């Protein structure tokens, strides 16, 4: 297994500048960060390409093949790069809001956070007495196929920020970002040790070998203390799919640990992994939603009709070191997509190797035939996986979880398929797909209701009775139905058991006269006041948790 070297960034001295955003004013940790970029500026800064020198086409074939390798270092800004940079920009600055070193917020939070490990009861009392600011950190999940360029792209985005900013006025070092790999073992202890090792390499002040024999609980405190002391802006953990293999609840423990860092310490976290990690974001994250407060990013292969595919081809195509330059014809583009299936890393590799094969030949030009021959010869081991993607069959694609992101059969069916199935088998494919999608939605609603504490039979019953086209509306209606139908039944049973004599008497008033209680009051008020946010209504009702996400709104 190849172990990547940790990403290291630059060190700068703080230069404070106003951001134009009220919340960020007079906040040194935020004002020392680079300017907030718009999309065009982000694209320019992420782009990493060298100007093409047409004179190099006169070099010897051997030298030109070396020039072709230049393509491997190119970074071409695509929509996913822009999306991630925008989210990361918000993530870092939002996380710093409750840790202002200019007004004492940070000092009070450090004391309260460390006290929470020893005496949580005292920490709670101090939190109320001294008005300690709540953590403002959140998280981001990034799931991407192998070869999509997510790790390279994220490293490039992180490098838009200095890694360490020295604040001479406040005599502190601000660690803006830290990127480490999830340990293969999937243990919290090893993750903490990896973190401490990076801190010792970057800012010193700790000796990594000293902590080798420490217990996990001790390492968690040390890691938390270092993250607060050095004002960590965001912790990026790559290769999160390693948790896919961890058994005995290891994945849940690790993810809950991430949640503790975000909720208690106030450090934003970005989790990056291949599609193998997707189940972590759907199963284990049920009760730790703050980890994905900024949502998640699906970094998939490129679709042939997408703007990103056209952008990639446009950027690379002029970098031809063959004697004869050829335009990118429809046939060549189709050949390149067929042999790469839109995986950016493979697009570049096939393009490079096709040029190398053409260079030195009698007719030095790129053709679709050369592209096909290179792909079949030099990338033979990848053909089974690529054939699975070409087939569009879910069963085949699921064998290769590193490159399979989603399954959308409606996008893969053409008119010929529709006519064939209609004439030969009497099956209307579009209707079949709608039924299949409806069945998937039904299953999702059932499991969602079961997560709320109801039985499988109860969940199925209310899901059938409240069916709706919009999944969010369906979930809300099913949950409301379940509360009205089964919670009242349980209350009635409990009442009869506690007072059997009373239950023999007259029946209680009609259910229509019952008072709406619990979350139903919030739902009712929301229906009457459409312009009022759920957050405000919940706050007024005295609830703490995020009811919007729970109700699927």
What does this protein structure show overall?
The chain is α/β, with parallel strands linked by helices. 51% of the residues lie in helices and 7% in strands. It contains 25 helices and eight strands. The strands form two sheets. It has a five-stranded parallel sheet with strand order 5-6-7-2-8, sandwiched between helices. A three-stranded mixed sheet has the order 1-3-4, with no helix packed on it. Helix 8 (188-202) runs parallel beside helix 9, helix 13 (330-340) crosses helix 14 and helix 20 (456-465) crosses helix 21. The longest helix is centred in the C-terminal third of the chain and has 28 residues, at 471-498. The protein is globular, with a radius of gyration of 28 Å.
What's this entry about, in short?
Helix 13 runs parallel beside helix 15 (368-378).
Secondary-structure topology with pairs:
Elements: E1 11-13, H1 28-31, H2 39-46, H3 61-68, H4 79-96, H5 105-118, H6 120-129, E2 139-144, H7 150-158, E3 164-167, E4 172-175, E5 177-181, H8 188-202, H9 216-229, E6 234-238, H10 250-265, E7 269-273, H11 278-282, E8 296-299, H12 307-317, H13 330-340, H14 344-358, H15 368-378, H16 383-391, H17 394-397, H18 415-425, H19 429-451, H20 456-465, H21 471-498, H22 500-503, H23 519-528, H24 534-541, H25 547-550
Parallel strand pairs: 1-3, 2-7, 2-8, 5-6, 6-7
Antiparallel strand pairs: 3-4
Helix pairs in contact: 2-4, 5-6, 5-9, 8-9, 13-14, 13-15, 14-15, 19-20, 19-21, 20-21, 23-24
Strand content: 5-15%
The tally of beta strands, per DSSP, is 8
Distance between the termini: 43 Å
> What's the rounded overall pLDDT mean?
78
Catalogue the unreliable spans.
Answer: 284-289, 407-412, 491-518, 543-553
Tell me roughly what share of residues is in helical segments.
40-55%
Strand order of the largest sheet: 5-6-7-2-8
Counting helices, strands and paired strands, the structural category is alpha/beta
Number of helices: 25
Rg result: 28 Å
């Amino acid at each position: 297994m190849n172990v990547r070297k940790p990403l290291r960034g630059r060190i700068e001295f703080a230069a404070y500048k106003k951001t134009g955003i009220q919340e960020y004013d007079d906040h040194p940790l935020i004002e020392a960060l680079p300017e907030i970029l718009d999309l065009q500026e982000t694209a320019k800064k992420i782009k990493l390409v060298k100007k093409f020198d047409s004179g190099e086409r006169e070099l010897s074939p051997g030298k030109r093949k070396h020039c072709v390798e230049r393509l491997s270092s190119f970074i071409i800004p695509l929509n996913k790069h822009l999306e991630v940079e925008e989210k990361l920009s918000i993530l870092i600055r939002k996380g710093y809001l409750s840790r202002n070193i200019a007004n004492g917020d940070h000092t009070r939070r450090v004391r309260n956070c460390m006290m929470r490990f020893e005496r949580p009861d005292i920490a709670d009392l101090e939190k109320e007495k001294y008005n300690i600011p709540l953590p403002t950190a959140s998280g981001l999940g990034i799931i991407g196929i192998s070869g999509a360029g997510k790790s390279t792209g994220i490293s490039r985005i992180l490098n838009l920020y200095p890694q360490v900013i020295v604040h001479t006025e406040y005599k502190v070092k601000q660690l803006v970002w830290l990127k480490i790999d999830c340990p293969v073992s999937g243990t919290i202890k090893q993750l903490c040790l990896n973190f401490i090792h990076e801190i010792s390499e970057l800012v010193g002040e700790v000796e990594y070998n000293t902590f080798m024999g420490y217990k996990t609980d001790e390492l968690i405190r040390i890691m938390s203390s270092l993250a607060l002391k050095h004002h960590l802006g965001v912790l990026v953990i790559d290769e999160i799919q390693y948790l896919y293999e961890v058994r005995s609840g290891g994945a849940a423990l690790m993810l809950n640990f991430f949640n503790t860092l975000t909720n208690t310490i106030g450090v934003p976290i970005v989790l990056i992994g291949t599609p193998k990690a997707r189940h972590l974001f759907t199963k284990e994250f049920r009760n730790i939603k703050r980890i994905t407060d900024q949502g998640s990013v699906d970094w998939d292969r490129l679709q042939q009709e997408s703007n990103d595919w056209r952008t990639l081809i446009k950027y690379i195509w002029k970098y031809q070191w063959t004697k004869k330059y050829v335009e990118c014809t429809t046939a060549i583009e189709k050949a390149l997509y067929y042999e790469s299936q839109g995986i950016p890393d493979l697009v570049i590799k096939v393009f490079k190797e096709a040029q190398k094969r053409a260079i030195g030949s009698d007719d030095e030009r790129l053709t679709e035939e050369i592209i096909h021959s290179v792909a079949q010869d030099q990338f033979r081991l990848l053909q089974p996986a690529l054939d699975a993607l070409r087939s569009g069959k879910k069963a085949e694609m699921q064998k290769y979880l590193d490159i399979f992101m989603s399954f959308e059969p409606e996008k893969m069916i053409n008119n010929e398929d529709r006519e064939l199935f209609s004439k030969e088998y009497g099956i209307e494919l579009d209707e079949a797909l709608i039924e299949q999608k409806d069945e998937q939605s039904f299953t999702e609603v059932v499991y969602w209701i079961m997560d709320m504490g109801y039985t499988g039979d109860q969940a199925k019953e209310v899901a059938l009775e409240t069916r709706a086209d919009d999944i969010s509306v369906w979930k809300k209606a099913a949950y409301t139905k379940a509360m009205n139908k089964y919670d009242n039944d349980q209350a009635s049973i409990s009442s009869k058991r506690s007072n059997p004599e009373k239950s023999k008497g007259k029946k209680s008033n009609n259910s229509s006269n019952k008072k709406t209680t619990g979350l139903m009051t919030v739902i009712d008020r929301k229906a009457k006041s459409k312009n009022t946010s759920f957050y405000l209504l919940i706050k007024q009702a005295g609830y703490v948790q995020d009811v919007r996400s729970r109700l699927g709104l």
